[in-house]
Amino acid sequence: MQENLISKTLKGNKSDIPIWFLRQAGRHIPEYFEIRKKETNFIKFCLNEELIIKSTNLPLKYYDLDAAIIFSDILMIPWAMNRNVKFTKNFGPSLNPMIPNETNIIQNISIFSKLKPLKNAISYLRNTLPKDIGLIGFAGAPWTLACYMIEGSGSKDFINTRKALWSSNKWFMQLIETLIVYVADKLEMQARAGADILMLFDSWSHMIPNNFFNDCAIRPTAKIIDILRSRKIFIPVIGFPFKAGASIVRYSFESKVDCIALDWSVDLRWAIMNINKDIAIQGNLDPASLIPSHSDYLSQNVLSCLDIMKEKRFIFNVGHGLTPDCKINNVKEVINIVRNYTR
Ligand code: CP3
Questions:
Q1: Is the separation of the CB atoms in 259 and 280 below 8 Å?
Q2: Is any ligand 1 atom within 6 A of the Cβ of residue 205?
Q3: Are 93 and 149 in contact (CB under 8 A)?
Q4: What is the 73 CA–ligand 1 centroid distance (Å)?
Q5: What is the rounded distance in angstroms from the CA atom of residue 244 to the CA atom of residue 250?
Q6: What share of the chain is helix, strand, coil (3-state, %, to 5)?
Q7: 102-124: per-residue pLDDT in tens?
Q8: Best of 73, 205, 326 for a ligand 1 pocket test (most atoms within 8 Å of beta carbon)
Q9: Is 243 left (phi over 0), alpha (psi -120 to 50) or beta?
Q10: Nearest Cα to Cα of residue 117 among 76, 88, 75, 65
Q11: Which end of the chain offers a freer environment for a tag, N or C, measured as fewer CB atoms within 10 Å?
Q12: Domain carrying residue 63
């Protein structure tokens, strides 16, 4: 029985390189649909302890991974806030859009009681998973949650969210402050239930106007981590400022994360020169490289990532979630290369 490799890397170890995949538990594994069939309403699926456990364990049946990520969704916080979250096939999520300046932002929601099945599933998983498999809890970052809550769905440019940021700034920042507390609550609950590592997904951080990047991404992340530490939760936090360009440098120094997850557009050589050297790096293979049935570039690219990161605290991962058409054999090939690599 030993500590999982990801936690060791996050605490300073540089021997073996750990590996796991963003969105490893979803639709690229045909067996997922068997589990998914048992509950067609996706929110109810995410509130069903037995189905959460089965989905979290599923990728471990197929792959030699260093972590399981708890099966849930970032939109479970807006759901708990009564935003009428629904998932429709071929459309994605929809919510009751928030009207800027509407007064009902602050609600005394108990994330702990609303998301109890998640807590129970984590306790069960931590008790049953081998100790060398890390369990990752997560939440959406406040900006990304605000994007979905104001827009009411996904969007290519989140124009209504950005408009609200400029026109109703005080209200917008109140929404961010409220979300900071709920996100901290959800992360605290997962840590207390047994999660070993926490991750914050800021999937739409590339929509933040540059002058607001500190207010909307860096400061909220630092505040969430301050709240966790003040509540005596000391496990490592991975931050994922997706496609945020050069702003990730400041994020790496000021957001208080223990590790920064890089998207596939980031040049790793540039990253190791510019990013805070005191934190670990996770990333950043293009998930699209796992779609073709055969690609000569795949192994070459994985090896080149490993060579660049040879001297660093590095967690191998993809630079965004696996897609439904990702091939299981490609994932296996990548794991093999990483396992056989010696630094
Ligand atoms: O490995 C895992 O998949 C773990 C569980 C997980 C899900 N969502 C399950 C899910 C995680 C970590 C997420 C995070 C998530 N959810 C993010 C951040 C990561 C990213 O992709 O940027 C975001 C933005 C969401 C919001 C969301 N949830 C969207 C836009 C959609 C629909 C489109 C899509 O990507 O599937 C979902 C639904 C969702 N969440 C599914 C799964 C497995 C598909 C639902 C189904 O089975 O029909």
A1: yes
A2: no
A3: no
A4: 6
A5: 11
A6: 50, 15, 40
A7: 877 777 899 999 999 999 999 99
A8: 73
A9: left
A10: 76
A11: N
A12: 5-339
Say yes or no to pLDDT of 1 above 60.
no
Q: Which two tokens stand for residue 195?
A: 């999660």
**Closest-CA residue to 284 (of 262, 300, 267):** 262
**Ligand 1 touching residue 74 (CB < 6 A):** yes
pLDDT tens, position by position, 129-173: 999 999 999 999 999 999 999 999 999 999 999 999 999 999 999
Q: 3-class DSSP state for residue 315?
A: strand
Count of domains observed in the chain: 1
Closest CA to 324 of 297, 284, 288: 288
Average pLDDT over residues 301-314: 96
Tell which residue, 161, 159, 137, has the closest CA to residue 149: 161
Residue linked to tokens 């996706």: 42
Tokens of 298: 């795949």
Cα 68 to middle of ligand 1, angstroms: 15
Residue nearest to atom 13 of ligand 1 (CA): 73
Element (H, E) at 320: none
